[in-house]
């Protein structure tokens, strides 16, 4: 599948934003974060900033962005529509949490309920995003049981990395926040490694034989229907060279998971400037690593239409 | 509404004979000709007369060669690919705007180009590559089963068929109601063991493909003589041949 930059940015930015918002809501409500105005304001600006720019960037690849409002109507059948509805609903408790935190400097009672509600809706939104991909049967690399857990864990992970960098900048040393960062990085790494291993071994059910309805024999392309790439090949026929994919995967292992895990462990056991630098480095590296991971998620996905253009299996 | 109708009154669709299709692209050409002025018009082209021409087509004709190993017989299969108007059309259910829909009366899958936001998700959801994005109009386009021909009372009744069917020079394309077991197309599917494409995907396509018939390799099965003997020349013919030879000098 064509790795469109707007969609890569959308899934990574909203993933981090919703993961961060959820932790802000939960940690805020449980009193692990100070109810200080500036903590709440900077946290919500970062979370809603990431979410809003991500959502806006997702409209850039639309043929008719001015009609984007129509995408809220078909929540009964479409995961894309459900995601749209959930993403907008999340703003309500998130902004109310902001009113309590920033205006009244209070994150208890009603405001705490809003924090928890914002977290639940954030997770729902990320799950809907994942289900858009999970539900697409023609793409075996997405239509499997890794997609939804990966999206949720990676969202929580990139939110936790961001949260630990922000709290360290506010000179808050909280073992729960740092611990969660380390744990989510470890789970995220294990999950993504298992997914990449699954991709290497597993293939989708359709073959070129079932695609053309002729059972026996090896099928080769004699003549393509057109002389240059068409929409199908540009959108669904994207191919990444195996050499590049392996290098990028290594980059994703190192930048997205290994180094952030190392720096998060350093931040867990240190304080002051060392902890700040370590946690900010962990966040920066992890963000870049996850962008590479998301690029691979699209670039390595094979659509069954490529069976008509020379692939034997997908 | 992008929920699918539980049942459709008719299942209008195509039956495509892979045994007789010669891969001439006439169906694709006439499809383009009719539909560039029809329901989803225009079928735009980008750079049609320069390098890397691109454009929207509802029908694409692939040619494959099938190698059946040393003991089998290889063959060429020409394969027209267009929308199969599936019963479980995921291209419809993934649509976030309601622009894609499947008609309850005849099962035809259509796009309302005034509601389409061009998110392309329906093209991702189609295993067969039946939907193509029109970059100039910003909307998705697909085969309409020539809805503006088959119900068009301005045309003679014999012409109320999809453009691809009416133009096929070898009669490899058939149009009809596949929901009616007594229809000509349904009988053809039974007689020739018509097939679904990628049945494992579970989309339940309406269109059926008739696989190539097995090739007859034994001359006896074809009713041909087992060996050919040269015909004996008559006496008179020899003289005529000598005269012909003389005059030809």
UniProtKB/TrEMBL annotation, chain A:
One of its GO terms (molecular function) is dimethyl sulfoxide reductase activity. GO terms for cellular component: dimethyl sulfoxide reductase complex; plasma membrane. Keywords: Membrane, Transmembrane, Transmembrane helix. The chain crosses the membrane at residues 7-29, 41-63, 84-104, 110-136, 148-170, 176-195, 250-269, 275-297. The keyword Membrane applies. The keyword Transmembrane applies. One of its GO terms (biological process) is anaerobic electron transport chain. It comes from the Bacteria. Pfam families: DmsC. PANTHER family: ANAEROBIC DIMETHYL SULFOXIDE REDUCTASE CHAIN YNFH. This is DMSO reductase anchor subunit. It comes from Varunaivibrio sulfuroxidans. The lineage of its organism: Bacteria, Pseudomonadati, Pseudomonadota, Alphaproteobacteria, Rhodospirillales.
UniProtKB/TrEMBL annotation, chain B:
Residues 12-31, 73-105, 107-136 form the 4Fe-4S ferredoxin-type domain. It comes from the Bacteria. This is Fe-S-cluster-containing dehydrogenase component. InterPro entries: 4Fe4S_Fe-S-bd, 4Fe4S_Fe_S_CS, ET_IronSulfur_Cluster-Binding. The keyword Cytoplasm does not apply. Keywords: 4Fe-4S, Iron, Iron-sulfur, Metal-binding. The keyword Iron-sulfur applies. GO terms for molecular function: 4 iron, 4 sulfur cluster binding; metal ion binding.
């Amino acid at each position: 599948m064509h790795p469109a930059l707007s969609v890569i940015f959308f899934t990574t930015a909203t993933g981090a934003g919703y993961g961060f918002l959820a932790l802000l809501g939960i940690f805020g409500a449980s009193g692990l974060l100070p109810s200080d105005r500036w903590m709440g304001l900077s946290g919500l600006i970062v979370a809603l900033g990431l979410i809003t720019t991500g959502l806006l960037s997702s409209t850039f690849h639309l043929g008719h962005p001015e009609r984007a409002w129509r995408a809220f109507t078909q929540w009964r059948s479409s995961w894309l529509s459900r995601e749209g509805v959930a993403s907008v609903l999340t703003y309500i408790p998130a902004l109310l949490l902001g009113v309590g935190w920033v205006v009244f400097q209070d994150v208890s009672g009603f405001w705490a309920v809003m924090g928890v509600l914002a977290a639940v809706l954030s997770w729902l939104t990320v799950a809907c995003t994942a289900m858009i991909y999970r539900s697409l049967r023609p793409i075996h690399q997405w239509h499997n049981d890794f997609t939804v857990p990966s999206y949720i864990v990676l969202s929580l992970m990139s939110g936790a990395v961001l949260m630990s960098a922000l709290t360290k900048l506010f000179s808050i040393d909280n073992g729960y926040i740092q611990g969660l960062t380390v744990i989510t990085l470890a789970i995220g790494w294990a999950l993504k490694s298992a997914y990449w291993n699954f991709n290497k071994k597993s293939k989708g059910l359709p073959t070129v034989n079932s695609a053309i309805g002729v059972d026996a024999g090896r099928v080769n392309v004699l003549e393509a229907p057109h002389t240059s790439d068409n929409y199908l090949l540009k959108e669904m026929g994207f191919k990444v060279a195996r050499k590049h994919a392996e290098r990028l995967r290594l980059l994703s292992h190192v930048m997205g998971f290994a180094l952030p895990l190392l720096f998060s462990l350093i931040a867990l056991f240190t304080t002051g400037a060392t902890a700040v630098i370590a946690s900010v480095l962990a966040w920066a590296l992890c963000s870049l690593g996850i962008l590479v991971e998301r690029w691979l998620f699209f670039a390595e996905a094979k659509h069954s239409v490529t069976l008509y253009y020379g692939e034997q299996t997908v | 509404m992008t929920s699918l109708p539980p049942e459709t009154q008719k299942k209008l669709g195509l039956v495509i004979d892979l045994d007789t299709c010669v891969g001439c692209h006439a169906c694709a050409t006439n499809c383009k000709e009719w539909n560039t002025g029809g329901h989803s018009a225009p079928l735009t082209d980008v750079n049609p007369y320069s390098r890397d021409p691109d454009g929207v087509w509802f029908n694409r004709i692939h040619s494959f060669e099938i190698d059946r190993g040393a003991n089998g017989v290889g063959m060429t299969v020409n394969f027209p690919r267009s929308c199969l108007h599936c019963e479980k059309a995921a291209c419809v259910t993934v649509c976030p705007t309601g622009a894609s829909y499947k008609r309850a009366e005849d099962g035809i899958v259509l796009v309302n180009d005034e509601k389409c936001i061009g998110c392309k998700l329906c093209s991702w959801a189609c295993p067969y590559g039946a939907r193509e994005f029109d970059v100039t109009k910003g909307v998705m386009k697909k085969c309409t089963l020539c809805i503006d021909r088959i119900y068009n009372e301005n045309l003679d009744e014999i012409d109320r068929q999809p453009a691809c069917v009416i133009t096929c020079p070898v009669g490899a394309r058939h149009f009809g109601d596949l929901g009616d077991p007594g229809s000509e197309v349904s009988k053809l599917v039974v007689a020739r063991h018509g097939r679904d494409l990628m049945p494992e995907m579970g989309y339940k396509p309406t269109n059926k493909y008739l696989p190539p018939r097995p090739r007859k390799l034994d001359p006896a099965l074809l009713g041909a003589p087992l060996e050919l003997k040269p015909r004996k020349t008559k006496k008179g013919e020899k003289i005529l041949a000598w005269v012909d030879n003389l005059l030809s000098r």
